[in-house]
Amino acid sequence: MPSPLDVFRSDALAGHVALITGGGTGICRGIAHAFAKLGADVAIVSRKAEVIAKTAEELSHETGRSVLGLVGDVRDAEAMARVTAEVIAKFGKLDTLVNGAAGNFLAPAAALSPNGFKTVIEIDLIGTFNSSRAVFEALRTSGNGLVLNISATLHYHGTPLQIHASAAKAGVDAITRNLAVEWGQFGIRSCGIAPGPIGDTEGMKRLAPGDAAERAKKGIPAGRFGTIEEIAAAAVFLRSPAAMYITGHVLVVDGGHCIALPSIL
Ligand code: HXC
User: For ligand 1, atom 38, which residue shows the shortest CA distance?
Assistant: First the structure.
């Protein structure tokens, strides 16, 4: 089976430096893998030291490039400033920030504690702001900066048990548009990817456990879950020269899931 990444030249991202939050696992691990494989210098950050060290070692081994693993919590603005400085110290510059750190669980609105709601907002939304703000000067210096926010399609409709994540991801999409407008003058683009159901991710394990996964596939026009590599390919495209006139846009990569009504036939 060919990889969606095969269409890109093996040095498509040579000379780029990327910082990827949430890069220890799942979709953002896949983006880190793709960026490194295509020649970028990559740093991944997560609050869990053992996870990030293990993933950085695996990615270095898999891609043949030295991937930098950094410990930091996106909820902590000072930590993200330190992380940014560590990336610059190691690689000399920074061109791309991928905001992928996220938290989620299923919870009914009436039973969700205020702290549960706040925690997801702090990781997804405030974390995206903190990280973007921390890298602004570096991206401006790059002259070819990109903030790439990973959101979702939850908030396009009312999604049961997801009030916290929906509110957070709606805010993330707003950040994508605002930064495009404010930072375009500094040579910085701001784009988003809204993945639909993606297999082999922590999110799908949490949101569609067991039989629910098979049932969920029936509502996807493509008839299957997406793959991590398909999201990584979208990220490479948005980072590439092919997308230099795209900013403020959130690319939905979901096999048609969010536009499909339940079939009555
Ligand atoms: C209800 C819950 C809960 C649950 C936690 N809380 N899990 N409430 N149901 N299952 C509540 C806690 O009771 C607490 O509130 C508050 O949330 C904070 O919990 P902590 O465990 O102290 O927070 P923390 O250690 O910071 O952990 C953050 C987390 C955790 C989000 C709760 O699950 C996490 O670290 N997740 C990271 C990995 C992850 O979620 N990946 C999936 C991302 S998928 P109280 O009131 O008790 O103090 C994704 C995709 C979205 O984002 C789109 C999908 C289509």
Answer: 103
Residues with CB under 6 A from ligand 1: 102-105, 107, 112-113, 115-116, 119-120, 152, 154, 165, 202-203, 206-207
Q: How far is CA 183 from the centre of its chain?
A: 19
User: In the CATH scheme, what architecture does the domain 13-250 have?
Assistant: 3-Layer(aba) Sandwich (3.40)
| Residue from 6, 28, 39 nearest 232 by CA | 28
Q: Which of 46, 105, 159, 169 for a ligand 1 pocket mutation test, highest count of atoms within 8 Å of Cβ?
A: 105
Average pLDDT of the chain?
A: 96
Instruction: Show the DSSP H helices in 19-126 as ranges.
Output: 26-37, 49-63, 77-91, 114-120
Average pLDDT score over residue span 27-42: 98
Q: How confident is the model at residue 262 (pLDDT cuts 50, 70, 90)?
A: confident
Cα dist. 197→40, 94, 186 in Å? Answer: 27, 30, 34
How far is ligand 1, taken at its centre, from the CA of residue 114, in Å?
12
